[in-house]
Amino acid sequence: MMMARKQDVRIPTYNISVVGLSGTEKEKGQCGIGKSCLCNRFVRPSADEFHLDHTSVLSTSDFGGRVVNNDHFLYWGEVSRSLEDCVECKMHVVEQTEFIDDQTFQPHRSTALQPYIKRAAATKLASAEKLMYFCTDQLGLEQDFEQKQMPDGKLLVDGFLLGIDVSRGMNRNFDDQLKFVSNLYNQLAKTKKPIVVVLTKCDEGVERYIRDAHTFALSKKNLQVVETSARSNVNVDLAFSTLVQLIDKSRGKTKIIPYFEALKQQSQQIATAKDKYEWLVSRIVKNHNENWLSVSRKMQASPEYQDYVYLEGTQKAKKLFLQHTHRLKHEHIERRRKLYLAALPLAFEALIPNLDEVDHLSCIKAKKLLETKPEFLKWFVVLEETPWDATSHIDNMENERIPFDLMDTVPAEQLYETHLEKLRNERKRAEMRRAFKENLETSPFITPGKPWEEARSFIMNEDFYQWLEESVYMDIYGKHQKQIIDRAKEEFQELLLEYSELFYELELDAKPSKEKMGVIQDVLGEEQRFKALQKLQAERDALILKHIHFVYHPTKDTCPSCPACVDAKIEHLISSRFIRPSDRNQKNSLSDPNIDRINLVILGKDGLARELANEIRALCTNDDKYVIDGKMYELSLRPIEGNVRLPVNSFQTPTFQPHGCLCLYNSKESLSYVVESIEKSRESTLGRRDNHLVHLPLTLILVNKRGDTSGETLHSLIQQGQQIASKLQCVFLDPASAGIGYGRNINEKQISQVLKGLLDSKRNLNLVSSTASIKDLADVDLRIVMCLMCGDPFSADDILSPVLQSQTCKSSHCGSSSSVLLELPIGLHKKRIELSVLSYHSSFSIRKSRLVHGYIVFYSAKRKASLAMLRAFLCEVQDLIPIQLVALTDGAVDVLDNDVSREQLTEGEEIAQEIDGRFTSIPCSQPQHKLEIFHPFFKDVVEKKNIIEATHMYDNVAEACSTTEEVFNSPRAGSPLCNSNLQDSEEDVEPPSYHLFREDATLPSLSKDHSKFSMELEGNDGLSFIMSNFESKLNNKVPPPVKPKPPVHFDITKDLSYLDQGHREGQRKSVSSSPWLPQDGFDPSDYAEPMDAVVKPRNEEENIYSVPHDSTQGKIITIRNINKAQSNGSGNGSDSEMDTSSLERGRKASAVSKPVLYRTRCTRLGRFASYRTSFSVGSDDELGPIRKKEEDQASQGYKGDNAVIPYETDEDPRRRNILRSLRRNTKKPKPKPRPSITKATWESTYFGVPLTTVVTPEKPIPIFIERCIEYIEATGLSTEGIYRVSGNKSEMESLQRQFDQDHNLDLAEKDFTVNTVAGAMKSFFSELPDPLVPYSMQNDLVEAHKINDREQKLHALKEVLKRFPKENHEVFKYVISHLNKVSHNNKVNLMTSENLSICFWPTLMRPDFSSMDALTATRSYQTIIELFIQQCPFFFYNRPISEPPGAMPGSPSAVAPTVPFLTSTPAASQPSPPQSPPPTPQSPMQPLLSSQLQAEHTL
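The structure corresponding to this sequence follows.
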């Protein structure tokens, strides 16, 4: 039943009549009380349908229309509402009013003639076909509006809304209105219908009126009052719903809300709707050019738009839209304005940057000035319409030029003033900067290297602080410091050159002793240029060491004037003047059928030659073609394994001309075979004209051993190979070298290096064979050397131009790039002169080794270093060689004004007088001198030519017969000049090669070479047949037939260091009985020959040499050796030893005296000669810590094999000490074993134990390693040489001991140095029982490393890495990740991944060097660790493979020998403790070989 009743319920309908004061203007005033607005807002609440103006003054026609229908009430229509209890109802609303005739202004007559009060109280309304009212505009235009009739033409009123206007109405008294309302209420009350009082226009309400209205309502038995505002849409619905509640008593009582509370709610609703609508507009409208029509269509369906239009209307929505577009336009204009204003200062800087031009101009005048500038239109645009922000220019985005009318605005004027102020400030700051610089330059307190903190107080004043920022004056100070430091370094370098005599007298080598360095410090210490670098001692020491490196290793690259070295300039001048033979050879290369062919002899017994040949052929193409540097060469191999004297084994055949030879050995027997074969091959070509095999490039290679060879060690084979290579003057490659290494593991890169060297050697061979015939070599009459000083203030072109422009000047036939041939009339005959133009440092190396008939030495009169170098050079020149001194001046005026020039000219003249030389000066302003000025000098040279040549030949023959242990085993021979492989710098990979002179055709050069080598072997009973050959030639008083010396490429200074020593001591040493190999090394008995080859003793008279000087003149010069008798007290007394030294026994005095050096004749030369014998020969490293011990032994006499040496007893003690030092160096001191820092002093429970005992699954990294690496990464990543520079041993031991006692040790608190911590960390791994990289994995790593494809190699290494034990893998990952991080800071710490791998691979891998395979794989070990460091992200963090970094200059990977056949491999010297400064990081093989040697000595 309940459900049925609810379904039958219909929507209730209520008819409501709105009544209130109505009538004429006299009764109601000028406006109504708001009944129409109230009805309008309720029936049509949308703001667009709400109208404020509803007139009651109508025409007769409008009154009679269907809307009014001749009635004084309006039907507003039907409204459906949901009340508070959510029950929907319908309401018909009518308004009782009174229409006024617009003609009579009296109420219209209607069917009902009752007054308004009576009509308003009517409850039954009838009007046939009456239409619903909308607005006043509807009257007369009913067809344009919706036509809806009043239902049934009649309505029964259910209740009344009694309206009271509480606003201040015009011409209306509120009391009169209240009186009218009271009468109206009384009439309404009679109907018994519910009545609700509605206060209208409360938005303009008067408080008293509202109060009175409420009082009226209260007086009527609690008549309910609702405060409304139709305009604000406040409480309108509340008034009608309140009346409905009174009509239908069943509905709940409606809560009446006060006006202001309802107004607040309405305002909040409107504000919320407005915010949402504005957000919608800002989201949709982005351009200020958008129009309302298009935008409103876009927003039509948006609830935000609908809500706001409902509440506020379309006009307000449009207004907000227009406000938004206006704001967008304003923002756009402001952005353009900011851009223009930002560009304006740039325009000012570009157009008016000069302060003097605009300093006193106003903005208006500056504007006119701007228009005159050529680039005005580049910056500004002149618009026809102004202002610019009101024109379409604002939308012209392509034109970024500034509107010129912007200059009329205040911001532009301000920017102009700012520009002026900026220019003024810049001028002031520039003045302050200049003043600051001048202050720096004039202040005596600013010295090179002084920190800013120390200099600040001396140079800063208030103006500097005010006008200059700290970064500015710091930058100026830094630049000034750089300038004065560079200048001080240049001046210090000049000072070092001024003391050239000191450096050459000290006979410095790669590792100068502390004593010699102390002498340099003492001599230079008082010089102001030395003191200028007081605060930069490290850089000063580096300059000294660099200069020392230049002194003992002079090249164009090490020259202080590089790249302006005189040698480079001379080579360029001569090569541009002549087409060198090599150039002609290149021109004819296209016609040479063998230019692209390489013929290679491979020499080795027992299958070595064939095996290597097969391996090389495997690298060739099918047709024996080999690609080198992108070019195809035909490779022809000739393996030889038998007697080379047989035709089948000959090096050279009619169809095979060899370009080089690879000599292979793996035992003493195979090495003996190589030496014997080489000597036989050379001997077979001695009598031939085309002695090509004499200078055939050789390379000696140690390859894999085949089985046990009598227990000999790898070290002995290496040492023997080095000795042989030194004697043969050829390249030696052992398993540690960067060459081909060993047999089975040869790779394409290594063989390519060998073949590249062959190509270069081949070019040299072609050069010699194409130009230097014996006749050409003998045709030169005089050899003159012209010496120039690098860095002198004159042009080498000016000096050489008279020579090169001479009609008789020709290209030298020797192939030298610094020599020319002159044919000049000297006396009655023309002489062919070979003039070699060299720098002084190049000349030093040839003054004792080559035949030179005279020197022309130039020096600058105004440069002290130039004359100092000249003095140093002349000290070691024999006094019989003519000297021409040439002083270069700036002219007579400069000589008079310049004290230095005047003094140096005077000194040069005095030197020339004291040495009986010639002197001349040439003004640099007139450098075009003529060769005639040297004619007197050339005459002197011609006069002394015979004695010079004879003396030079005697010296060479005597040297050949006096080859002793001092030659190859002296400290000088052990220096980098000779056979040390410890370079002083990264660039010194190869010793310099000077190809400056050819041997004199009259010299027995071959005898010299053969005797020198054979004498060394003869002392050990090896290869004695060569000795007999030499002896037979020596016994002839006429030297052997003239043959040119083979152009073997070697370092001159290396070959002659022993000559210098012997000459300085003023006597020839006797032949030593000590073997040239260690006792436990190579056994020369393998080369034994028949005893009849032993040298026979000679009589004393046989020391007379008859030297044919000039075959055309038939002169013979006889020279006698006048050396005092010397007994051979050393050795074991064998006959051969006594006989081979017979040439050095006592001689009778001769009429011809031996020449001396110019230093003994000139008091101005050799001022530092006292230092020559003040020190033991060699460096501190060479003497070692056993100096005192051996001195004690010397005081007691020598015992054992070396008995007392009688001839030393009466000698000068200082001289005796030098000789002792030479003998001591024949046997290297045994290095002391380094004690373990952990096991020698305490028993550790942490260090030296297995790795598994110091790690756990929770802590896979040893806590000690973790602490060390954290400390290093926090404090030491920028430490130069980290892991290379050793830490203090005692500190490392202390660190480990403290950590052993307390694992929570804080390294930072203990203040250990970074190098100490790094060393202790490395020591941890060194002391592990097994290396971090397990032995079981090392072979797999090496095999993976052999893979040629880089990507496959890395993946193979990664697979091996995965098989590491877990503990080893985690620690290895941690360490490698750390090293990778260190390498990323290599620009600061100088430790690249390669350097780190060199330092770490022995620690991490610790290979067993008892086997050949392990030793030859050392390079692979280092490269493997380097790859792990470089590719750490790939190996451990699954990152992609990174590109391989370029090899650092000087690194082992970058310094591969590029021309192996042109340079002689120096014999290995034992490593020594580091001196000052630390040497360049050496190869890992050196300490390993040293340890091997130590082990052998121990055994």
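Residues 10 and 232 are 33 Å apart (CA to CA).
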